[in-house]
Amino acid sequence: MNTIDLVTQKINLLPPKQQEEVLDFVEFLITKYRVDNSHKSAEQLATERMKDLDDPDNPDKWETVVNIGDEIDVESSLENLRKLRLGSIRS
């Protein structure tokens, strides 16, 4: 059994609140050890994302502007992020 399988098996033994803590810790480690973007400046990252503006109707693109008064569904956004992170860890 590999490490991912062991972690998955053991995390199922924890209550949901502790599972969220484990996920937060894993996300922290991903951020800490991510090499591909760690040497890019904020300007470089923003410039790379400018191509997202070319296709504003594509739902797979990031929302790059939030206007004053726009409603933001924080819980849904966090849940989507958790699913994406967990999916990338399992891949």
Give the strand content.
under 5%
Mean pLDDT: 78
Please identify the structural class as seen in this structure: mainly alpha
State the helicity in percent bands: 55-70%
Count of DSSP H/I helices: 4
Structure report:
The chain is mainly alpha-helical. The protein has a domain at 1-54. The protein contains four helices and no strands.
Structure in a nutshell:
The protein is mostly helical and 91 residues long. It contains 4 helices and no strands. It starts with a helix and ends with a helix.
What features would you highlight for this structure?
91 residues; mainly alpha; 4 helices; extended
Topology of this protein?
Blueprint: H1 3-11, H2 16-33, H3 42-49, H4 74-90
